[in-house]
């Protein structure tokens, strides 16, 4: 029998380390590894850094954030919803659930005028500031439907760019179609999303909304009150709505805030009024 060379197959191990093993995947390409709880600090850092780098590269210098309900409908759709709810109620007038649906549809139709106001605001700001490619006062929303869609749509009407900061949710929301694709972000963490809302913000314009809108509003008010952030103008759209929702004087009467704390925000009814307030506080449309 001939002798086998030193490099022959008889000298090889009886098995080979599988290159398909997860341990073989480089750490920065191992998606499952990056999802481990121990990697949360790294994910937080990446989620802060990626949108920041992209905005810097695209020349985004300042923003105006628009908050408001994702459930607030465009007027035509709100009107159709009310007609449908009214027809269902007429067929069964004593049905409590149908009575409630018709009442809510009526209120949503009344609030739907804010869709048009938000759209006009997005158009007004974008057509004024995004001239010759400037990245000033870029409209930023949460990226979803309702008021967010309306503000992004207004910027699109002006042929301008706008941003959407979406968040992953159990019931996934899709970004509205009016966001500039290169400025459409998706976040895992609410905290990092909120940080990006305010990093370049010159103003926060808040339309009627629910828990999410209130959360974002009061966090910003707290940051201004405590001096953690400065030079952000807060405009609440629809004074009657906000004064019905929140008993602002009660906070002063109970000694829970100072009277000067209520100067941290302003009321407006129209897109032009909101824009005038912002310009007055910042000395002009472009800082």
Describe this structure as you would to a colleague.
46% of the residues lie in helices and 12% in strands. It has 11 helices and 7 strands. β2, α6 and β3 (162-167) form a beta-alpha-beta unit. α3 packs antiparallel against α4 (96-111) and α5 (113-129) runs parallel beside α6. The longest helix has 18 residues, at 40-57.
Topology diagram in text:
Layout: H1 31-34, H2 40-57, E1 63-67, H3 75-91, H4 96-111, H5 113-129, E2 138-141, H6 147-157, E3 162-167, E4 184-187, H7 190-199, E5 201-206, H8 211-225, E6 233-237, H9 239-245, H10 248-253, E7 265-268, H11 271-282
Parallel strand pairs: 1-2, 1-5, 2-3, 3-4, 5-6, 6-7
Helix pairs in contact: 2-7, 3-4, 5-6, 5-11
Shape: globular
Question: Tally the helices: what do you get?
Answer: 11
Helix content: 40-55%
CATH class category name of the largest domain: Alpha Beta
Which ranges are low-confidence, i.e. pLDDT below 50, for 5 or more consecutive residues? 1-7
According to CATH, what is the topology of the largest domain? Rossmann fold
Could you say which structural class the secondary elements and strand pairing correspond to?
A: alpha/beta
Number of domains: 2
